[in-house]
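Hi support team,

I submitted a single chain yesterday and got back a structure, but I'm not sure I'm reading the token output correctly. Could someone confirm the output below corresponds to the sequence I sent? I've pasted both exactly as they appear in my results page.

Thanks,
R.
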Amino acid sequence: MGDKHILIVDDEKTLCDLLSEALERVGYRPTACGSVKDAKRVMGMDDFDLVVLDIMMPGESGFDLLRWIRKDREDKVPVMLLTGRSAEEDKLLAFELGADDYVVKPFSLPEFVARVKAVLRRSERDLPQYIDFGQCRIDRAARIVYREGDEVKLRLKEYQVLVTLAESPGVAISRQDLFKAIWGDDSPSGEKTVDVTIHTLRDKVEHDPAEPEYIQTVRGFGYRFAPLHEGTSSKQAD
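Hi R., thanks for writing in. Yes, this is the structure output for that exact sequence:
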């Protein structure tokens, strides 16, 4: 954990202070900014391991800063968006622009810290851009899944479930953990939603959904993505 440097961008000073204190308690080094303009200035002066970014701010929005980070700077620093907006189209835009996580207010400080740790763990693993399995390819940068070269039309939650499992092949992940990571504790949906999403996802990516080869059920617990077989691969971008 050490001296991970985290930039918090939010015009609510009280929230910045609370988040900063929570991060300091677990050993991180936070820096807070109240506007996109200040964040750009600070990012030009120092390096950060994570940017925590509010969407709705006076002047330029969090989406504007995210575009600047990904397009103008071509920076791969992980970005977590904080917002009071839970609309599906906002989440889709966030992930299309390159966000790594999307946290809807209100949230608890323990949940916030846990999600910060999860984003940092994913970034530290230096995961490949492409994950290939069977006839499918996940393009993590573009957030697109292909099957036999054609794009598979996945809903946002289907994509998130698939990537969460595929990033940790061979690791059993509980329904509860999948639900919390993707739907969030404040979701009115129950854990059965995970099973329904897995069912529709298998229809789209498995050769035989009735006998799934990759998205496997761990009876009484959750799901596991089968380790890649011979002839499949995880590849870095060329």
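A quick pointer for reading it: Residues 109-124 form the longest helix (16 residues). Let us know if anything else looks off.

Best,
Support desk
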